[in-house]
Specification:
The chain is an alpha+beta fold. It has a domain of about 160 residues. About 25% of the residues lie in helices and about 30% in strands. A hairpin with an 8-residue loop joins strand 11 and strand 12. Helix 5 runs parallel beside helix 7 and helix 9 packs parallel to helix 12. It is elongated, with a radius of gyration of 34 Å. It comes from Zootermopsis nevadensis (Dampwood termite). GO terms for molecular function: RNA binding. InterPro entries: NOL11, Nol11_C, NOL11_N.
């Protein structure tokens, strides 16, 4: 499961075009921002600037940190290198290392190897080798003279390390290159084209058994092309799915996050603002999405640790994300087909008919809904069939059915949903709870609401997810619910299980703790004393049961011994006399 967390602004941008790039720093949760003639180190955790350097000369590529040499490396004027440590104050005093060939950028490696120097002609050398041969003019060229580098990615596995380069020539023809760095791997050059469609974004994704070249086209189709180690087929490769969460009228930025997740940033489909999504390539669904008010073209997206950094029109935005274990229940129903979608719009045929089966202990198979269909309320059958046909999960079904059921006050249908659905969102439980409390009285005419309230109290939930929704529950309704729980505590035969009573009482006390402390209402204080007395009574009962438990265990094991009465024998007596 992938999730985008709340984003924040790291610092304002006067001109986003002056931002050359962002790289990871020597310490975790720190980044190096290269902005025009300035180099700034930021700590993302507290959004504070650690240090900075300025130069008279203009930088031509992002500054990177060399973990092997414990130094920073910068490229000036495309043909000069400068290396310095963190303690250095003035970068202009550092000795320049001049090259005959133009340098495109410096690429740090994370496997303990020295950084790579990539020249504008596509040649790649380790730092030490590039410095030794810097005066040579005839360096082997990978690209043609009319080609420029648009993007690159460094990939490494146990056997080899290689670089992928996306280049574009003067005729607007795009090529995909694979450049070996170490290991036994050959150079690859592919023409990236698709008839009648334009390339909008691309990235490379490293999986367990292969490396794939992902391409996103102007019709929204996302393709995956394996190029290592197995032989590669013809471009564009295998269709993953059609991406509709971002607009294809503008360029799109893609960054690989894991073997199955990719971050996509581009203009919003409504053409108002921008959208950042985490896309699951394995299942072809959008798992998380953020909307931004402004979109800056071309889109700039960087990846640092567990953070995504975006250059918007006026700010550098940091978006933390989390990648957790994938849960199929969270993906079911996440990608529903629309009725207005044309049949030829996707190369994948979608099937919505499935046999839901259950294998019991006797090895027989039967339809899960065969026995329960006759108990489904008639008002829900049509809606449930439509939602099941769309592949909606239980939580999505509840969210879509709940507004209609609350509006029509369909109490019996609400009770049925609570009793038969196992995955009910906590916010939906609070909505039903509020609905029942607003109509709840002690009169016999409101017995359905009493039953609905008890059904909510028995529904499974997560206290961590429920607490934020309970904060929104009005205080007077909270007091009404506490009165109801206290009455169930005192009842001889309670309609609510004791464990549910204890858990709900604890949550309600935690949710409005400050209100209870600051309240001077005598009725509120009396209610709290009443609950305190009930808790003390429960503790006393538990202690009594605790003392009774050993006796019951002995009785069950047949070891219960009955002590015989001891009778006093008065035939003789013994007296002790102290003579001295």
């Amino acid at each position: 499961m992938a999730r985008l967390c709340a984003y924040y602004s790291l610092f304002p941008l006067i001109d986003h075009r002056s931002l050359l790039g962002i790289a990871e720093d020597s310490t975790s949760d720190c980044v190096i921002v290269t902005l025009g003639k300035n180099i700034i180190r930021y700590k993302l955790l507290n959004q504070k600037q650690i240090s900075s350097w300025s130069s008279i000369e203009k930088l031509s590529s992002p500054v990177v940190y060399d973990a092997v040499g414990n130094q920073y490396i910068a490229v000036f004027n495309r043909n000069q290198l400068r290396l310095w440590t963190e303690q250095e104050e003035n970068v202009d005093k550092i000795k320049k290392i001049k090259f005959e060939q133009q340098i495109h950028c410096v690429i740090p490696q994370t496997n303990g190897s020295e950084p790579l120097i990539m020249f504008t002609n596509g040649a790649v050398y380790p730092l030490s080798t590039a410095v030794e041969t810097r005066k040579e003019e005839n360096i082997s060229s990978l690209l043609d003279t009319n080609e420029i580098i648009e993007d690159y990615h460094l990939l490494a596995n146990e056997t080899c390390t290689f670089l992928t380069i996306l280049s574009r020539n003067s005729l607007d023809v795009t090529h995909f290159h694979v450049v070996p760095v170490t290991g036994n791997i050959s150079c690859i050059k592919l023409k990236v084209e698709r008839e009648n469609f334009c390339l909008m974004g691309q990235t490379t994704m490293q999986q367990e058994s292969s490396c794939n070249f992902l391409t996103l086209w102007s019709d929204g189709k996302l393709y995956s092309l394996p190029f290592h180690p197995q032989p590669f087929p013809k471009l564009p490769g295998t269709l993953v799915n059609t991406v509709r969460a971002v607009s294809m009228k503008h360029p799109v930025a893609l960054v690989s996050l894991s073997s199955s997740h990719v971050a996509i940033y581009g203009a919003d489909p409504s053409e108002e603002g921008a959208a950042l999504i985490i896309y699951n390539v394995q299942f072809g669904v959008v798992q998380s999405r953020h909307h931004f008010k402004l979109f800056a073209s071309p889109p700039c997206l960087w990846h640092a640790g567990t953070n995504l950094l975006i250059a918007t029109a006026h700010n550098l935005v940091v978006v933390p994300y989390k990648l957790e274990a994938q849960r199929l229940c969270a993906l079911v129903g996440a990608h529903c087909s629309g009725s207005a979608r044309p049949e030829h719009d996707s190369d994948v045929q979608e099937l919505h008919q499935a046999q839901c089966s259950n294998w019991g202990a006797n090895g027989t198979m039967k339809d899960i809904f065969a026995e329960s269909d006759q108990h489904v309320p008639e008002a829900l059958k049509e809606h449930l069939e439509a939602l099941q046909a769309d592949g909606c999960c239980q939580s999505m079904m509840i969210e879509k059915l709940l507004p209609l059921l609350l509006e029509t006050k369909a109490i019996s249908e609400l009770v049925w949903c609570i009793e038969h659905f196992t995955d009910i969102p906590e916010r939906s439980l609070v909505q039903i709870l509020l609905f029942s409390l607003e109509n709840f009285t002690k009169t016999e005419k409101q017995e359905p609401y009493h039953k609905l309230l008890n059904a909510v109290l028995h529904a499974p939930f997560s206290d961590v997810c429920l607490m934020p929704s309970l904060h929104t529950l009005p205080f007077h309704h909270t007091l009404t619910l506490l009165h109801h729980l206290a009455e169930e505590f005192e009842a001889d035969v309670s309609e609510v299980k004791l464990c549910n009573l204890v858990e709900w009482t604890s949550l309600l006390l935690d949710a409005h703790y400050q209100r209870y402390l600051l309240s001077g209402d005598p009725q509120v204080l009396q209610l709290l004393r009443r609950i305190r007395g009930l808790v003390i009574d429960q503790i006393v009962h538990m202690n009594e049961l605790k003392g009774l438990l050993p006796l019951l265990q002995q009785f069950e094991e047949g070891k219960l011994s009955v002590k015989k009465p001891q009778f006093a024998n008065k035939l003789y007596s013994i007296e002790w006399l102290r003579l001295y």
